[in-house]
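Hi U.,

Before I forget, here's the chain from the pilot set. I'm dumping it here mostly so it's searchable later in email.
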Amino acid sequence: MRNALTKFFVIAILLLTVGQITLLLPGVLYAFHEGGVGYCEGCHDLHSPLQVSGEGTNEGDISGFGAYMLKGSDPSSTCLICHAEAGAFYNIFSGDGSRYTPGGDFYWLKKTFSSTVNGDIYLSEGDNHGHNVIASDYGLAEDRILDSAPGGTYSSFAMGCTSCHNPHGTISGNANNSNAIGVSGSYGSVAPQGTIAGNFRLLGGSGYNGGSRSDGISFAYPAPVAAGHPDNWTETDTNHTAYGSGMSEWCGNCHNEMLSGSNKHPSGDNSKLSNSAVSNYNAYIKTGDSRGMQAASYLSLVPFELGTADKYLLVPSSSSGPDAFGQANVMCLTCHRVHASAFPFIGRWDFSATFIADSHPKTGDGGVSGSDVLNSYYGRNMAAQFGQYQRHLCNKCHMQD
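Structure:
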């Protein structure tokens, strides 16, 4: 009996060791988030002393590992163990604002800028620069300004990475769960026969509960259709997330009032770009220059949805603007980023600046350090590229300058 037990434990240890080595092999580590649950011990400490002693009662308990035996003090801290890793392409929280990912850089949550305009002092507070995920291990705290989501009731106290991303990748409301998830849904990959693709960026589907700290929420809309580059998250005009459909509706799971009302900018699958807006987008290069062509008119600072549920039509390297078939639409992310930006209201640009070159943060502003000014526009020298008197980027569609 003793020999049998010894043999069992030796085999178990060998299997565990082989599994760990496999995860470290080039090209294999990325399988951690292949659309589904992934490698359990990447997030959970299976022998947590806090679990043994009974400390912590839920996933969001920031006093310890909690009942879910997380490696971080809270869910977002656990996510950032990898996603704040220096030098990693999947880093979304740098120390200087240099991560030019489609969603933005959580660095900006920790930056408050002050400026003087016409004798008045203005503050651009870090809490207004993004979704204030609570990650105590990384110095990110609950929003001090808002107690709930604008246009909704989702509590700021519950805000974390798992508010939007389902850590286990289940896809309720999006597909038949009787099939295994065989591939990530983030890159337009074809799922092996008998399997399905996961949701884009592991976003919660319809029925998702918004994370364990939320209070009775249930998502009404499924995850959006989109595709990005699998291992290059640096956003440019020729390397960017290609959006298909459903993004604004999905945002409406928490910001539901933003999708309705006469005083709201139209957004969503039913907000198709008019013929004039399509023509403007494709012709507009910058203030005073409308000689652009559709094949090279895409501007990552003003993205749009293609208006399709077929992710295999999405090309993240495309430089084309909207076509003339009337299917493209404006969405929340046309003007806003998801994680954080250097600007108020998570803007892709400074909404309050008459001229883009006068955007804040600006050299000389309080709180500005390092390359904040250059990084705020993803490495673009806006005055050099667009001119000193470039106006709002709303003009990409509306051309009122």
